[in-house]
Write a structure and sequence with these properties.
The protein is an alpha/beta fold and 223 residues long. The protein has a single domain, classed as Rossmann fold. The chain has 6 helices and 8 strands, in the order βββαβααβαββαβα. The protein has an 8-stranded mixed β-sheet with strand order 1-2-4-3-5-6-7-8, sandwiched between helices. β7, α5 and β8 form a beta-alpha-beta unit. α3 packs across α4.
Length: 223
């Protein structure tokens, strides 16, 4: 349904991404951020599915064309570790949001795993955003804390997760509440990555519940 396109970063450099259009003028936009595997077909599928739901969706390619096979966690870790998260947020993700705002009245940001952490960074750093939905990712507290979040935020996390542990999620959620932020976090009896239907950790029931909650959130904050 979608296609690969170029778009401009705020610094004027060219970036690439996968764009799926809703097929109607003035549709709200959603920037979609990849897992640590790169811009996999599964992430493109998320964009396609959002387009069917009425949103223009753009996934910027954070790895510049590199896609890691699902079995190669060492390579995925190397790619993620070499990524400058702040530059990616300020240039690639913000550039994608600015691109969508050329035709969309409002833009939201969502992401998975690595992309979940970038979603929270974007919710703190990107002024063009109206809302964010994070899936099982948290940035280091040294670069983005709960008090820094600027937009309404929804979060979806797995109870079986050794990266975004339930304790870490509870601490971040508590910080959001203490700071008076518009935020709601949900936790599922599932494994990290449960939204990815291409991997064994996929949990259809919890994935569909999270999807419906996200669409309701977009309907409220993006229109």
């Amino acid at each position: 349904m979608g296609t690969r396109i170029p778009f401009q970063r705020p610094d004027g450099q060219e970036a690439q991404g996968y764009l799926a259009r809703a097929g109607k003028a003035g549709a709200p936009g959603v920037v979609v951020i990849q897992e640590w595997w790169g811009l996999q077909d599964q992430i493109k599928g998320i964009c396609d599915r959002l387009a069917l739901a009425g949103y223009d969706a753009l996934a910027p390619d954070l790895y510049g064309g590199t896609v890691v096979p699902y079995h190669d966690t060492d390579a995925a870790n190397r790619e993620m570790s070499s990524l400058n998260f702040l530059e990616a947020t300020d240039q690639l993700v913000r550039g994608a949001a600015q691109f969508l705002l050329r035709s969309s009245p409002k833009v939201g940001l969502t992401g998975f795993c690595l992309g979940g952490a970038v979603t929270i960074l974007g919710a703190c750093r990107i002024p063009e955003l109206s809302a964010g939905v994070c899936f099982y990712g948290l940035p280091p507290g040294s670069v983005a804390g709960p008090a820094d979040v600027r937009v309404p935020l929804q979060g979806h996390f797995a109870l079986r997760d050794d990266w975004c542990t339930p304790a870490a999620v509870a601490a971040f959620e508590g910080g959001l509440k203490q700071a008076g932020k518009d935020a709601a976090f949900f936790q599922y009896d599932a494994d990290h990555g449960f939204m990815n239907e291409q991997r064994p950790v996929h949990d259809r029931a919890h994935g569909e519940l999270a999807w419906e909650r996200m669409l309701a959130f977009w309907g409220k904050h993006l229109g």
